[in-house]
């Protein structure tokens, strides 16, 4: 254990300094932990040409399409070392400064504000603004949206040298409907030297998922569906008739329907449209043909070249992106479920071995039975796919009806549509980005359950660690675990399960060979995991406390910071809490200190970019919104975190703003350290406060 402690401590200190498809399920046993079925690596195949691509995608999409298109009429929602020389900024001398709080050191993530210590660049309300860090004045503005577009159009940016890439997320949620939904998603490359100007605009046909930047090279993931307009059936058409019409349309669609397109507009306004060549489209062995992932590559130093964004496409879905210096991972969380699942089976009644109850799709926040007593680490059950038990258990040899399957039923059978709940599995795809140019498909694999966010994945010494929660179809049972996959082919080498039975994962952090997992329903078990042996990961220790941490951050040598909610013993949330954990001994984690603010919430609980920790001074800044009776306050609490405790230094608040006949206090979204000042950003402006006294130095309004 001492070896693990020393290794974990060294990794924790390093991170702190650097970072400012489907087979039958097994039956559930009495302990709700059925035997786990293994999920192997998923073979990845490139098409040899357009004819090969068209035949495969047509057939798979035809099997997937339902009476209402690629989905249902209604949906329910569940809760880089390749850089080239970059033009250097010509503004004032850069000061020591913090950067965006990212998952991996050296891998930048898009956010609404960036700084290089000499200037602050932010994008809000469709307008990019440049603020001089020395004079604290807005030196330039650039409107990026049109008069007919909403001012609240979501946007993030990445910055390298004198270039910024603004990612405007148009189109919202991708509903799989009768006709493909057009999107206003666009990526705008801006020159920041002198007066800012647009160099290029990239308009992909699809929805923006996420992006990562290593050096000056950005990889952007876009999701789209086949460009097929399905026929309009008669109002009285049956689902079977609608499906037949849709399948005919899919089977006659041209190859171009599955070739994602991108429009590129240069500084002069000239347009050109490019399609992904068939030879650059690949697919896993098991795929639907109803969703396409495209990875675009853009070197901010070079700008858009003749190759455009050098895109490659995978016939798969995805909504979570995680990147390292050598790999880009995209995971397809089982997130969206049609109310009436399109995947159905036509069966006759009665059917032997059919479940007596109607299965329902899992929901994000289950209310399972009371958790059982946690087993000791050596006897923890393995993670498994959990099924809803039938009302009266039967074996595969015993029919559920008194009618013999070999004899005709007393009544003529009628076809019924039995919804089939999709298996709760997550596909993970890896792209090699270690060389210049377009990424290379490397491998795909599957894990049971669903991921919380990108922090559920971590690459370390040739392996990918993935934390998931598996929930039964009725939402009554759940458990979590960590799977270790070999990086080369994403085949599983080991796993540890049985974490938080009856609960789900609320936060995950991997630091070197150690993993930290928080699950919650009524109490918060913080698990420490020994991941040194990829073939035999195991639980090292466990700490049970009330409430939970929704985000975990390295806090220095043997320390871990948690931001989340305090809760009563019955699991009712009470307000924001910040905890300092001593994890120097993984076998015995303990909480050293806690700050609690009753009736409050923090954006940092769901968006790690909102959290700032400056190790040099032990300063942490956490957005805080208090909503108690007579105590409504929006701002950011400033904390001092040492090896032994957390103290509250004060509160930063932005000026109140009048809108029509209402006065409100804007919430603080981001914070940065530049020199000896704390800069905070809201949707109304930027404020500069003295880092030591917290006295206000400047207020820079956006309007």
From TrEMBL:
It comes from Nonomuraea montanisoli. Residues 1-28 form the signal peptide. Residues 370-379, 388-405 have a biased composition (Low complexity). Residues 349-439 are annotated as: Disordered. This is Beta-propeller domain-containing protein. Keywords: Signal. The keyword Signal applies. Pfam families: Beta_propel. The keyword Translocase does not apply.
């Amino acid at each position: 254990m001492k070896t693990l402690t020393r290794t974990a401590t060294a990794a924790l200190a390093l991170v702190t300094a650097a970072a400012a498809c489907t087979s039958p399920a097994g039956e559930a046993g009495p302990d709700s932990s059925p035997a786990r079925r293994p999920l192997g690596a998923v073979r990845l195949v490139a098409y040899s040409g357009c004819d090969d691509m068209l035949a495969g995608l047509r057939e798979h999409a035809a099997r997937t399409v339902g009476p209402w298109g690629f989905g249902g009429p209604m949906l329910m929602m569940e809760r880089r070392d390749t850089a080239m020389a970059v033009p250097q900024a010509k503004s004032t001398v850069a000061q020591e400064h913090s950067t965006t709080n990212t998952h991996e050191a050296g891998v930048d993530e898009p956010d609404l504000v960036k700084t290089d210590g000499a200037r602050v660049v932010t994008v809000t309300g469709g307008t990019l603004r440049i603020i001089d860090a020395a004079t604290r004045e807005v030196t330039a503005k650039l409107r990026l949206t049109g008069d007919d577009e909403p001012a609240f159009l979501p946007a993030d940016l990445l910055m390298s040298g004198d270039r910024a890439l603004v990612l405007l997320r148009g189109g919202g949620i991708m509903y799989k409907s009768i006709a493909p939904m057009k999107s206003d998603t666009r990526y705008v490359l801006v020159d920041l030297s002198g007066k800012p100007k647009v160099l290029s605009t990239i308009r992909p046909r699809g929805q923006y998922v996420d992006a990562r930047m290593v050096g000056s090279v950005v990889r952007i993931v876009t999701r789209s569906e086949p460009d097929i307009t399905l026929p309009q059936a008669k109002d009285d058409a049956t689902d079977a008739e609608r499906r037949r019409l849709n399948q005919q349309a899919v089977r006659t669609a041209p190859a171009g329907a599955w070739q994602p397109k991108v429009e590129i507009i240069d500084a002069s306004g000239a347009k050109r449209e490019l399609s992904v060549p068939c030879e650059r489209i690949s697919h896993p062995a098991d795929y639907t043909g109803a969703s396409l992932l495209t990875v675009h590559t853009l070197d901010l130093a070079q700008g858009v070249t003749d190759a455009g964004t050098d895109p490659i496409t995978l016939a798969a879905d995805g909504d979570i992106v995680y990147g390292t210096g050598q790999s880009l991972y995209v995971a397809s969380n089982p997130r969206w479920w049609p109310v009436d699942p399109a995947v159905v089976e036509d069966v006759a009644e009665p059917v032997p071995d059919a479940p007596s109850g109607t299965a329902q799709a899992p929901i994000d926040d289950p209310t399972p039975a009371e958790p059982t007593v946690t087993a000791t680490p050596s006897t923890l059950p393995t993670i498994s796919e959990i099924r809803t038990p039938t009302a009266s258990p039967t074996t595969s040899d015993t029919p559920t009806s008194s009618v013999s399957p070999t004899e005709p039923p007393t009544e003529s059978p009628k076809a019924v549509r039995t919804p089939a709940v999709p298996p709760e599995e997550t596909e993970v795809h890896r792209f090699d980005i270690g060389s210049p140019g377009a990424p290379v498909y490397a491998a795909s694999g599957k894990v049971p359950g669903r991921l919380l966010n990108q922090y559920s994945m971590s690459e370390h010494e040739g392996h990918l660690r993935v934390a998931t929660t598996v929930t039964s179809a009725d939402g009554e049972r759940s458990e979590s675990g960590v799977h270790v996959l070999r990086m080369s082919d994403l085949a599983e080498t080991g796993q540890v399960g049985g974490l938080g039975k009856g609960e789900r994962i609320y936060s995950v952090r991997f630091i070197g060979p150690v993993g930290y997992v928080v699950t919650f329903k009524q109490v918060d078990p913080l698990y420490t995991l020994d991941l040194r042996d990829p073939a035999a990961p195991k639980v090292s220790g466990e700490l049970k406390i009330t409430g939970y941490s929704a985000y975990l951050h390295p806090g220095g040598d043997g320390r871990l910071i948690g931001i989340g909610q305090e809760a009563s013993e019955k699991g009712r949330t009470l307000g924001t809490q910040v905890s300092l954990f001593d994890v120097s001994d993984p076998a015995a984690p303990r909480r050293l200190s806690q700050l609690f603010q009753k009736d409050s919430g923090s954006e940092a609980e769901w968006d790690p970019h909102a959290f700032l920790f400056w190790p040099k001074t032990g300063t942490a800044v956490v957005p805080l919104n208090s909503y108690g009776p007579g105590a409504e306050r929006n701002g950011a609490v400033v904390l001092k975190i040492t090896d032994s405790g957390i103290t509250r230094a004060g509160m930063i608040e932005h000026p109140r703003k009048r809108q029509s006949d209402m006065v409100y206090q804007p919430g603080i979204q981001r914070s940065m350290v530049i020199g000896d000042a704390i800069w905070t950003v809201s949707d109304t402006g930027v404020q500069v406060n003295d880092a030591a006294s917290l006295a206000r130095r400047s207020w820079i309004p956006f309007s």
